[in-house]
Amino acid sequence: MSSTGSFEHLPLANGDVAEVHIRVDGRARRISIKVDRIGGLVTLTAPSRSALPAARRFLSRRVDWIAERRAGAETAVPLVPGRDVPVLGRPRRIDHDPQARDLARLLPDSLVVGGRASAVDRTVRTFLKAEARRRLEAAAQNYAARIGRRVAAVSVRDQKTRWGSCAASGRLSFSWRLVMAPERVLTYVAAHEVAHLRHMNHSPDFWSLVAKLDPDWRAAEKWLKHEGPALRRYG
User: Fold this and answer.
1) Domains along the chain with CATH numbers
2) What's the CA gap between 111 and 113, in Å, rounded?
3) Residue 5: what pLDDT?
4) Around 230, how many Cα atoms within 13 Å sit in the side-chain half-sphere?
5) pTM of the entire structure?
6) E strand map for the chain
7) Residue pLDDT, tens place only, 176-185
8) Which of 52, 121, 151, 163 is the most buried (most CB within 10 A)?
């Protein structure tokens, strides 16, 4: 859903090293720097490839500001018993039950995890990734059928800068963290990427197709913009 780019590392005066996502976005009007409030990822955006040298010089002049913003970034929430993790937009308490028959079972207010206590974090991640893939694949296949297109494959990853992507081959990739968002947000991202199967751009025709697939897409996009970054706190 956004332009791709490369990752670099920027040493800071306080001894920290910031991970910087370098991206080129033709829709950008100027060079900009953003520091994610969750984890402190730095994103440097340039409006064109020819502007990258100037963008890197701008980045080097902002190291003190970057260090200050990263110092105020929120810390991660571990996926351990007693903690809440959002699933489909609802907080669920992680409960460890070593006698549980299932490795993970989703209840209205909790996520019951079996197995060894030392493996709870890994088990929660495995469950969430599987649930995300199952729901996103079902939504994508449904939307693709509606527009007469074929989804070649669906994968889920821990993408740091995008919620989803569509390759020319028809392969769709999503952030597994979408399973933490309300279901209407998860299905919107599926609709967005499926629309790219017909329009590999963000033209008016593309957005018109998105609106046909998901008439309430603007509300979901707004949720992602304001609430989405907090999902990266978990794990």
Assistant:
1) 5-71 (no CATH), 84-125 (no CATH), 128-233 (3.30.2010.10)
2) 6
3) 64
4) 10
5) 0.73
6) 5-11, 17-24, 32-35, 42-46, 84-87, 90-96, 104-106, 110-113, 153-157, 164-166, 171-175
7) 999 999 999 9
8) 163
